[in-house]
Amino acid sequence: MDKQFLETSLLEEQDIKLATSALELFRDQKILQAWINQIAYYRTHIDVFIEEYMGFKLADFQKVIVRNIGNTIDSDIVATRSMGKTLIVAAVAAAIAILYPGSKIIVASKSKDQEAKRPRV
User: pTM of this prediction?
Assistant: First the structure.
């Protein structure tokens, strides 16, 4: 075989490998960027995350409450009985734990009886 042909074919093989790895890296970076964008969206739209990812169906007023909780530092929920306050708080706590790894979630109780009933993790 001709030496120049061998060098050319080896060069082409290296170019193909380099191009292939560059394409894989580009694809991986595009996938990573898509994940980053999706997580950023879900962090500002926790109500959408809870419905799409966690599978809960929220009423419209619950979506407003959940999004408010997700986009503020301090929130209060004022609602009558059977409006899903406990569900909202549990869903938001779970969503925050997923979307912000390493978050500390504190559960407080008004009385010792309530505290005794809470699940232990």
Answer: 0.67
